[in-house]
Amino acid sequence: MRSATSNLSDRRLAQAHADRIAACQDELARLQSEGVLALDSSQQQAIASHHAKLLARYARDFDIDPTRRAQQLSLGMRAASFLGALALAASVFFLFYQFWGYFPEVAQASILVTVALATFYLANWLQQRDATGYFSKLAALVAFTCFVLNLSMLGSILNITPTEKALLPWAVLALVFAYSGEQRLLLVTGILCLIGFVAARVGTWSGIYWLHAGERPENFFPAAALLLALAKLDWQQRYPGFAASYRVFGLLTVFIPILVLSHWGDGSYLDLPPDLIEGGYQVLGFVGSALAVYFGVRRDWPDTVNIGTTFFVVFLYTKFFDWWWEAMPKYLFFLVLGLIALLILLVLKRVRQSTGRGAR
After folding, report:
1. What is the pTM (predicted TM-score) of this model?
2. CA gap 306, 161 in Å, rounded
3. Best CA proximity match to 319, nearest among 272, 269, 284
């Protein structure tokens, strides 16, 4: 798995260099057309030849996209790979259920274990050899589907009561495939399984049946803390977009329960009057979303800024609805909301400008 990750990292660096070459060529052409820069024919030919050799080597060794047209085709290939993976996963799912009743229980268990292991090794084999990742991602999603079917149907065969514990191995396998092949889809799948497992486990510790863990939104706070802690690990930086995914889902796992509890105090574990609980969570929502915007701007995390801004506006609008919906004419209510939106835009513009001056 280290070699597969290394290959993907090298391909990513090569693609980034190819993109910089394309931008450099465009800028050189613009400067020459505006008369800012004058290169003689030998200099232009030397630069073009050097770039062409680099792009040819990168295309040969890493199968990069040397042109914008090739990038557009690669985008189509990624879409085809994703749709193909979903189709094959659905095919495996319905194939099992179509013919499952014709096999005895021993054969069923053997088929499940064999298919799960075979697809796992196939996905691992492809990750070592597929530099582009199109086929390995497809195989990884099919292997994950087979593994989920394996545990679910073996539990049914052995008459095992469904439990939240199955979510943990699902999360582990999804994350293993995600990190070994830099697969964002399986990373998100693993994060969702991890959120479900932690919330359900916290709920069971509180005496709630695991499927009813969502009836207490505070069960999701430990999962949010775990995701935000994982996002801060240094080795996440080796995987583009992974830390951002942890931050996004960690913040969603914080703010969505806060939003629910700010209007449903009876869902809290706190032994306080519901109105007091709702008011406390409303304040917490404003403070938390404002802090998310603050830290997002300071750390240059646009995902955090976007989540914080979105929920600050949601908390603000829901509070205005509680205050003014019945007291104001509807045209005036929406006029006030529109003016507040403009005010938020002006504030964010000022913050953006000050950030830009600080960067210079």
Report:
1. 0.72
2. 41
3. 284
